[in-house]
Specification:
Largest sheet: 6 strands, mixed
Bound molecules: adenosine-5'-triphosphate, magnesium ion
Number of strands: 10
Number of helices: 12
Low-confidence stretches: none
Strand order of the largest sheet: 6-7-8-3-9-10
CATH class of the largest domain: Alpha Beta
Order of helices and strands: EHHHEEHEEHEHHHEHEHEEHH
CATH architecture of the largest domain: 3-Layer(aba) Sandwich
Structural class: alpha/beta
Shape: globular
Radius of gyration: 21 Å
């Protein structure tokens, strides 16, 4: 199998005001004060860098469904934004095929960016456009096909995701699950071999969420699309992932890689264990509060 993405040694810091550091707890603030009291007190609103990602490396193989796991704030979306070229890493490299995304410029970068599709966290469709216009958007932007051809392609994408009859409706008329499908159709507009999805089933009920999982598997099997998916739904992870990498919210790096079952059964790392068991408990509780 060939490697489609290789991320190596990605690090990224952000600046935060001192006030925001209080969110990390008093001990952290005291630590900073004791390490360098002068620097800490000198400028009341000075910004301090903190790490969002630290030395993150992994590969994605062709045709696999790789899942990025981790608790809220562990940097999953930030990592995804680095792999799709929205953020530039402070250190490290991202290779897509044989092209370095970090250093690519001009036409090469443009070609790289249009070679994959993205469904962002929240999945926003434009509310003032019809579903068809939303799906057609990347075609309008990146191709010079005539309108009839663009409409034809957009219709075919809607059909693939099971939304054939919805072309002329407005996004607000669709259910949450249908909106996700439409956003997925838009991500597929340019016929990418590679799709990035950030929390595709968040906020959906378990049955609808399972429907999205089925769609992902179907796209992976029928079209050989490679997926990189951020999710923390345990059921989804086991349903779709060929492999998972887990980010840790404290060390900001990958602490485990493997098949979902391998990670679940890793008794040696309490961080991995608690993620799987707490999430499982949470999912169980959610199911219990669902009305019959
Ligand atoms: N542009 C930014 N500027 C400053 N801080 C940022 C920025 N983007 C992300 N962060 C911080 O980086 C950390 C990781 O955020 P990120 O959104 O990647 O987490 P996440 O794992 O996707 O969480 P969630 O599961 O809630 O979506 C957070 O502490 C966040 O506040
Ligand atoms: Mg996120």
């Amino acid at each position: 199998m060939s490697i489609v993405i290789e991320a190596s040694g990605i690090s990224r810091g952000f600046n935060r005001t001192r006030l925001e550091h209080y969110g990390d707890g008093l001990r952290h603030v005291m630590d900073r004060f004791l390490r360098s009291p002068w620097q800490f007190l000198r400028r009341p609103e000075h910004e301090e860098a903190f790490w969002a990602l630290k030395d993150v490396s992994f590969e994605v193989q062709q045709g696999e469904v790789l899942v990025i796991l981790g608790r809220s704030g562990s940097g999953k979306s930030t990592l995804l934004k680095h792999i799709i070229g929205l953020y530039r890493p402070l250190e490290g490299e991202v290779w897509i095929g044989d092209k370095n995304l970090v250093t690519a410029t001009g036409k090469e970068r443009h070609q790289l960016l249009r070679s994959f599709g993205v469904l962002y966290q929240g999945g926003a469709l434009f509310g003032s456009m019809t579903v068809l216009e939303n799906v057609r958007l990347p075609l309008d932007e990146f191709t010079d096909l005539p309108e009839t051809a663009r409409n034809l392609v957009a219709h075919s994408r809607l059909k693939i995701v099971g939304l054939a009859g919805t072309a002329d409706t407005m996004p607000a008329e669709l259910s949450g699950g249908m909106q996700k499908r439409a956003a997925l159709a838009r991500a597929m507009a340019l016929d990418p071999r590679l799709l990035f999805l950030d929390e595709p089933s968040v906020g959906l009920d378990p049955v609808t969420s399972a429907g999205i999982d089925d769609l992902i598997l179907q796209l992976s099997r029928s079209f050989g699309i490679t997926f990189v998916i951020v999710t923390h739904e345990i059921a989804s992870i086991f349903a779709i992932a060929s492999r998972a990498v887990m980010l840790d919210d404290r060390s900001k790096t990958i602490i485990a890689q493997g098949t979902p079952a391998e990670l679940r059964d890793r008794g040696d790392d309490p961080r991995v264990r608690s993620f799987f068991h707490r999430e499982a408990e949470r999912n169980e509780n959610e199911k219990q509060v669902q009305p019959a």
